[in-house]
Amino acid sequence: MKTLVAVKRVIDPYVKVRVKSDNSGVETQNVKMSMNPFDEIAIEEAVRLQEQKHVTEIVAVSIGTDASQETLRHALALGADRAILIRSEKHLCSLNIAKILQKITLDEKPDLILMGKQSIDGDNNQTPQMLAALLNWPQATFASKLNINGRAIEVTREIDGGLETLAMDLPVIVSTDLRLNEPRYASLPNIMKAKRKPLDIIELDSMGLNLKEHIQVLTVTSPPTRSGGVKLNSIEELLNKLQHEAKVL
Amino acid sequence: MSTLVIVEHDNKMMHPATRNTVAAAIQLKENPVLLVVGHQCQTVAEQAATIAGVHAVWLVDSAVYAHQLAENISELVIGMASSFSAILAPASTFGKNIAPRIAAKLDVAQISDVSRVIDQNTFEHPIYAGNAIETVRVLDSIKVLTIRTTAFDSINAEQSPCCIEHVDTIIESTTSKFVRHELSRSERPDLGSAKIVVSGGRGLQSAEKFKLIEELADALGAAVGASRAAVDAGFVPNDYQVGQTGKVVAPALYLAIGISGAVQHLAGMKDSKVIVAINKDEDAPIFQIANYGLVGDLFELVPQLIEQLKKRA
User: Smallest Cα–Cα separation from A46: which of A72, A86, A81?
Assistant: First the structure.
C-alpha cells in the first residue's frame, strides 16, 4: 500500500519566537527552521509500516517556498521514497492546504495519509480533519497506536479522559500524537542517499485550483507578560502569601 | 440567524466546558441553540436547557450516535448549518476532532482555540504555543469556532428550562466503528476546570514518588497535572499532561513542582491566576513566571506543605 505523508517547515520548537514590531507576524528571518515535530512522527510511522511490509511506497509532500525542499530532503533522509513540493509564496489557511492535498491525493491515490495532529506555529489542529472531510474518508485523529491488518486498521486515539480505539477500513487519514513513536535520526549515509531521491516541484498556480481567501490576519501581538514574582524562604511564608496576599486558599 | 453550540458529554453528564462555550456564543449573538447528540442522553439535554441564556436545545438521540464519531456528527451538523451564523464547540479533543470536518464540508474556515470575541467576524487566538496572539477576520458567512474554555467565564446561572426539541435525523457511520475506551479514573476534580491544579515534572523521579503530588492535590482538593517529561517517563498517564500538546488550564492557583518550565509546558498553564513553583534549580525558567517561588528539594518541601495544610484544615 502507498502512504502519503504531509510535512511542514516551521520555526524550530526550541526557538523563542519574537513578534515583529509592525505586528504583521513573527520574525522568521535568520531563525532556525525545522520539520514540524508531529510530522517527524508521521514520517517515522510510515517508515516503520514499510519495515513491517505494510507499506510499499512513502511519498512526502510539502506546500511552501523553495526553502521547504530542505524539509522534504530531511523526510527523504528519514526514509521517504520520493517527495513533492507544491511551490507557493502565499500564506495559506488550513482549508486551502487541505484542498491542495486533496488534489495531490486524487493524483497519487494513496491508501493511507499520515499527518501531524497540529503544526507548532499555527497550532490549528485542522488540516487532517479537513482533508478527511473533502475526500469523504474516515479520520483517526490524535493517534498513539496503529494496528494494520490487510485493509482493516485499528487506531488508538488520545482523548481528554484517556484512550479510545476505533476500527476503520482503508483508505484513512491518521493524525499523529506525540506518543505514537520516537522518531529516528537521519544517518549521514541516508542524508547522502536522500540527495539522489526524486523531488518533484509543482507550481501551485499550475494546479488549476480555485482557492479563495477565507481568513484575513489583522494583527499578531505579544501576549501580556507576567511580572516576575518573588522567591520565598519557607513553606509557612508561602502559605501565608497564598492565604492573605493572593487569597487563593 | 442564531449560534449553534455542540454540547460535549458522555451520554450521562454535560461536560462543564459547555458553560464556557455558551458564554462565548452569547458574546456572538443572542439566543444560542445547544445541540446534544448521543444515545440515551435526555438528562444531558435537561442540564443544557437550564443554562441561563440558552434559547433552545436540540436533542438527537440514537444508538448510532453513542460514541459521537466525527463522521456522523459532522454530517448531522452540516444538515442544520444553514440556520446558523456560527457553530461553536469547546477546544477539547472532542471539539477539535469534529469542528474542522464540519468547516471543510461547509467550505468555510475554522478558527481554533478562540480566546476572545472582538465582533461577530473577528477573533483572537493564541499561536506559537501561546507566544503570540493572532487577530483574524473570517470572511465566510458561517463561522466555525472552537472555544478556549479557560478564556471565557463559565455561565453558572440557571434559568427555567427552555424547550427541548427532538430531531430524528439518523446518519450511520459506515466507515468508522467504535471499539473500546480506556478511561483514566479519578475521584479528583477535572483537570480542565479545577480551581487548583498541582503538577509534577521530571523532578519527581518515579511513578512511586509522584504519589507525593497526588497527596498534595488531595490536601488542597486540587486536580493533578503533569509535564510532558513526567508523562513520557511513565510516572502518570498522558491525559494528565498540561501543555501545548496536552491540556490548557487556567486555574486560580497552579503549583508547578519539579517542572523546569519549558515553552511547551508554559503554553498550557501561563494564564493561571497565581503560579507557585517549587524547584531546586534557582535558574529554572518557571521562576520567571511564578508569582511565588521556593528554591529547594521538593522531597523536603512538599511533605512540609502537606503537613501544614493538614494542620490548618
Answer: A81
Residue B194 CA to residue B189 CA, distance in Å, equals 6
**What's the grid cell of residue A247?**
487569597
What are the angstrom distances between the C-alpha of B295 and each of A111, B200, B303? 54, 15, 15
CB < 8 Å to B102, chain A: 133
Say if residue B180 carries a ligand binding annotation: no
Establish if A186 touches chain B: CB-CB under 8 angstroms. no
- Asked whether residue B176 is domain-assigned, the answer is no
Please indicate, yes or no, if residue A12 is contained in any of the structural domains.
Answer: yes
Give A126-151 pLDDT, tens digit per residue: 999 999 999 999 999 999 999 999 99
CATH number at residue B211: 3.40.50.1220
Whether the model clears a pTM of 0.90, i.e. scores above it, the answer is yes
Subunit contact A229:B128, Cβ cutoff 8 A: no
Containing structural domain, residue A214: 2-221
Q: Which residues of B219-245 are buried (b: 16+ CB within 10 A; e: fewer)?
A: bbebbbbbbbbbbebebbbbbbbbbbb
Q: Classify residue B38 as exposed, middle or buried by CB count within 10 Å of its CB (0-12, 13-18, 19+).
A: buried
| B-contacting residues in A 130-149 (Cβ below 8 Å) | 130-134, 137-142, 144
- Alpha-carbon distance of B113 to B126, in angstroms, equals 7
Q: Interface pTM (ipTM) of the complex?
A: 0.96
